[in-house]
Amino acid sequence: MNIINPATGAIISTIKSDTREDLNTKLANLRQGQKSWAKKTVEERLNCIKKYGELIQENKDKLAHILTSETGKPLQQSLNEIQGAQNRVTHLSQNAKQWLAPEVLVHKGTTLERIKYEPLGVIANISAWNFPYNVGYNVFLYALVAGNSVLYKPSEYAALTGKQFEYYLHQSGVPKDVFQCVIGDGRLGQQILESKVDGYFFTGSHKTGLHIYQTVASKMVPVQLELGGKDPLYVADDVVDVKQAAINAAEGAFYNNGQSCCAVERIYIAVGIYDEFVKAFTEEVKSYKIGDPSDLSTFIGPLTRGEQLKVLKDQIADAIAKGANLLSGGKAIEGKGYYFEPTVLANCNHDMKVMVEESFGPIIGLQKVDSDEEVIELMLDTEYGLTSAVFSSNEERAMNILDAMNTGTVYWNCCDRVSPNLPWSGRKNSGIGSTLSSQGIRAFVQPKAYHLRKT
Ligand code: TXE
């Protein structure tokens, strides 16, 4: 498989894809290895994960360059991701023992009622390229600590990083027959769906997520899907500092080139501050440094996937044809690599694709609203349900709106944020199930109920 640098279009490496035979052998080994891994204590398994975290931090400069070279993520953002993902290791170290401990619910007379949490077995993690550390760790670290073995298929756009996860996990004491990385594209993914595993944990597009859900339905095993979003942000007219709100909103929309499941994808602005906000927002976006992602000062690099350029062009043409004003950007940048100008479209409405279909790139639609009632209706007008955000100085006002949202996550005066303390879950087309928090580890275990009576 050729690995392409999206900044130049050049092939930077060629690695061997796994065949169906390789996949079968790896799965058979994982089946075997899981048995002794599950017998280890949570502490023993955690020690490997802690060691892994240390090794990754020690090697983060090299790893950030690898991530940048295959995804085009600006180097500073690659470093941020690797550093930030370490909070999953810390969080597991502090909590996993307690979350996985058996629970005694009743101990009365001769009766004992108890729950034991048992691992699922061999789980498949089919993963994405946009935040491979974050979304990967959310699944494979938690699954390993819970006593499962893991077949990890990185995205074909983050395969080199996937191989690094495997290398450092093995270096940290996770046995080779407990974590295996397989290299390939959707065809290999399809073969995983046809194989025997005890759970599917997927991060990626709604289209592929739905396909996985339907394909494995008859296996009756857990399926968890972390899919995309069309996340709204509302800027109310009582924000203390309109300029700061614009800077924060722009970062939420354009960080990682907008290629984030929880990126701000549409912004509603109260009529009273609309002009001031739009001006500050556009100025901020125009100030972003676009260029070579391996330069630490670059904020906007190339898109990871060349195919997305067409989606963005189409959304922009559609919006302009329906009356949007193009305030910045609007086209792909000529030359090498998959670069697209950061694009701001004002005067948008829900007849335009940019306000209802996932963009997953550096473009944003801005829409003027007259009231909180109107904005609630607009924010709810979506097939997705990942996050919703409100910027307002009035907590009660913000909560009224956020309580009405049908999303797994809501934000007040912040956006595009994930915390290991809180469950990460999508509703509707954004997915099924939760990662992170105590809920995120329960996804990798099955409860066994013990009804015990001493005679
Ligand atoms: O996703 P795919 P891609 C969205 C985003 C992006 C679009 C396409 O809109 O532009 O998806 O990205 C594997 N059976 N998100 O092409 O196709 C594939 O090899 C089994 C949002 O990367 O969903 C990869 O490992 N597996 C998202 C993984 O599925 C299959 C993050 C994801 O690929 C398969 C990424 C099949 N038939 C993209 N076909 C988020 N939630 O943030 C493909 N795969």
Write up what this structure looks like.
This protein is 41% helix and 22% strand. It starts with a strand and ends with a strand. The mean pLDDT is 98. The chain is globular. The strands form six sheets. The protein has a seven-stranded mixed beta sheet with strand order 12-13-14-11-10-16-17, sandwiched between helices. A six-stranded mixed beta sheet has the order 7-6-5-8-9-20, with helices on both faces. A three-stranded antiparallel beta sheet has the order 3-4-22, with no helix packed on it. 51% of the residues are buried. The protein has 455 residues and is an alpha/beta fold.
Identify every distinct bound molecule in the structure, by name, code or SMILES.
ligand TXE
Distance between the termini: 63 Å
Proportion of residues in extended strands? 15-25%
Number of strands: 22
Class from helix and strand fractions: alpha/beta
User: Averaging pLDDT over every residue, what do you get?
Assistant: 98
- Please identify the oligomeric state: single chain
Biggest beta sheet attributes: 7 strands, mixed
Shape: globular
Spatial strand sequence of the major β-sheet: 12-13-14-11-10-16-17
Radius of gyration, CA atoms, in whole angstroms: 23 Å
Helix content: 40-55%
Low-confidence stretches: none
Supply the number of helical segments: 15
